[in-house]
Amino acid sequence: MFEILSNKLLVGVISFGMLLFSSFEGNNASFSKPNLIIEQNHYEVSTNLQNAFINDFYDIIHSGETIYIDFELNLIQDFGHEKKNKFYHSVKYNAMEKSYELYLDEKSESYIFYQYESLITHLSKIELAFENYDLDLKKIHLTASIRNLELPSLKKKYDMMMLWNFKKPIMKIRIEDYKNEN
Description:
By secondary structure, the protein is of the alpha+beta class. 21% of the residues lie in helices and 43% in strands. The radius of gyration is 18 Å and the shape is elongated. The protein starts with a helix and ends with a helix. Mean pLDDT is 84; it is low at 15-23.
């Protein structure tokens, strides 16, 4: 019963936003300027999603449904060779405990938060480390998207990218630019 009520609340929030879509202003999600550390063949990249979880996200997260943010990392090497890696962050609100469970797929780590602001800080943070033993790495691209939300009990599916104005944030790094800085 609680699931049906929370689904109806979520549908109401999404439907109301879509009804007012002509005046609806989505979030202009973007990545912060990345930090890149290079030590021989070891790379560490960190960045944050900015302006991604404002406006209607609070209500949607509080629906109790699991919300997924998908990421795709592209490592571009000599001659256009690419290595792709996909990972996600997920968040689910527990109304009984008034807590948020955050899962970071790239680290295989789960966290529990009791403050919404702390959740958003950690949900927005991307920290990656990887080795590159093949050809010289030339570029790093990272994109983010919000996975569609399916409500099986109501047989409805919502394109959550409307909250980001249907635009995927993209971070691009040219390795040469960072090597010249150091």
